[in-house]
Amino acid sequence: MLSCKEVSYLISEEQDRDLGIVERMQLELHLAMCKGCTNLRKQMSFLRGAIRRGPPSDDDTPADR
Known about the structure:
Blueprint: H1 4-16, H2 21-33, H3 35-53
């Protein structure tokens, strides 16, 4: 069984590469039992998406600014 520290590393790695089948199975097994790591995965995914979208452009800002 992987520790939370090992799982946090795999969560980070899965953002950059495809995990192997063993890594994926170990990760999913841990996540099924650990709410903290599940939340970490969701947060990292959200942050990655926000960074990819980047800052709002001038067209996205309200007109009254």
